[in-house]
From TrEMBL:
Name of the protein this chain belongs to: Zinc-binding dehydrogenase
Keywords: NADP, Oxidoreductase
Cross-referenced Gene3D superfamilies: Medium-chain alcohol dehydrogenases, catalytic domain, NAD(P)-binding Rossmann-like Domain
Gene source species: Phytohabitans maris
Positions of the Enoyl reductase (ER) domain: 11-324
Amino acid sequence: MIRRLQAYEHGEPADVLAVAELPDDPPPGPGQVTLAVRAVGLNFLDVMLCRGTYPVRPEPPMTPGVEVAGRVVAAGPGAERLSDVEVLACPALPHGALGDTVTLDATLATPLPAGFDPVVAAALPVTYQTAWWALERAGVGAGQTVLVHAGAGGVGIAATQLAVARGARVICTAGGPEKLAVCRDNGAFLAVDYRAEDFVAAVRDTTGTVDVVLDPVGGDVFTRSLSCLDFEGRIVAIGAAGGPPPPVDPMALTAANVTLVGLSWGSAYPWRRAERVREVYAELFALCAAGAVRPPVGRTPTLDEAPAALADLAARRTTGKIVVRLGRETP
């Protein structure tokens, strides 16, 4: 028997998720591998999956968890090269990783460098790949200024670290002194408390405008951010943790000479840009080794504690990354 977290209906994570005892997985099929799960990163998209509001909407029963580090304990035909290898992967929904084992397509698995901490590895895929691609698609380079919303969250911290590594200056927004300190500790030269002051006014007083905005919040934050952009500025819509943004008039973007970029990394890039994703992982592993990337794992709950951890994530009571630690001994 194996233990696996499952949602049997849509709703808030603490209400709909429970650990189930299930039969062992069948052997992996051709081109598949089964992992003994060591660590699973949590994301706001897991909350959206539980609520049924994520763009990819698997029907219950569903297991969340789209970032996994683990050891390959079974390999199907064509995937034998990964036998007994420690890997990092993003499994395909609805078969998420929050359980003792997970089976996935071998093309989604990236071998880890020897001795790489699985908890650190599980903090990389969604947040750091999302941040990397957001910066890449926005053309962020040395000397530019980037406004990062939710700067003390997982994507926000990743974006700040990676933007600084590219030679950019970063302004972050966050709520409260503790989260502002996190933003500054990760490289932001200015951290704005959105609860106490207007971030638009703070940007205008400090730099006048910014070249790029990275927005995982949505709502009116997205609309207000448009007024922060410089000529030929770019805004990357990453998510809507604060609610869907109001409709945008394309002619308003035209008049302002600004670019809107939509980015949903996990729903497309691992499949449509698989080789490039592996190259980005190699870059992230190297940045970790150099100390430029420092995944801020704040909590490592158990599988049984994961629903409460996701509830805290939904309520914005978290700082940095939550990684569920598992460790069932599997032969």
